[in-house]
Design brief:
alpha+beta; Glutaredoxin; 4-stranded mixed β-sheet; 4 helices; 45% helix; rod-shaped
């Protein structure tokens, strides 16, 4: 008796020994394949959990690194490495000086003269007295053209820089500013 794969015999006595063997072998293979599929299906939640855990771990690590960067204050440069050969239009300016230009000013103020000193103020993020800019301008005017005054967006109300040195003031102090410039 010849059978196709989809047919099941009504009576196993009708089968030859070879057909019985082939049928048993096919049933065992199907059972094995079914068990394998069932195991894979059972492993899906474990694998998904593993990938979720790995993803969360990576996110926590990246979040921690980003958080650490928020702890580092944003301050102006005090070294000349990476400077440009640009100079500001004046020694007292009303727009922030790019870091690369500040580095050049720290090296030498006009490309020829003494190293520069930069006084910067941040009245966007800090509460400034109405006359603060005028008082800072008066101090900068008292010195040669290597003393610069500019606004900034750094982490400090008043920040003074020179090559290798930086000082941050949270309140205006003319004596400290003059001492830094000297």
């Amino acid at each position: 008796m010849r059978m196709t794969d989809n047919e099941q015999p009504q009576d196993s006595e009708e089968l030859s020994p070879k057909e019985k063997y082939d049928l048993e072998k096919a049933n065992k293979a199907k059972a094995k394949q079914h068990a394998k599929a069932k195991k894979k299906l059972a492993d899906v939640p474990k694998k998904a959990g593993k990938y979720i855990l790995i993803s969360l771990t990576v996110l926590v690590i990246l979040g921690s690194i980003m958080w650490l960067f928020t702890l580092v204050p944003n301050l102006p440069p005090i070294t000349v490495e990476g400077h440009s050969e640009d100079s500001p239009a004046a020694h007292i300016v009303t727009s922030p000086l790019p870091d690369r230009m500040q580095r050049h000013m720290l090296e030498h103020s006009d490309g020829r003269g003494a190293p520069g000193i930069i006084i910067q103020y941040n009245c966007l993020d800090y509460e400034c007295e109405p006359d603060l800019i005028g008082r800072l301008t008066a101090i900068a005017d008292d010195y040669p053209e290597n003393v610069y005054l500019a606004p900034n967006t750094y982490d400090g109300k008043i920040i003074m820089t020179r090559a290798g040195k930086r000082e941050v003031l949270e309140v205006f102090d003319a004596d400290k500013i003059r001492e830094f410039v000297q």
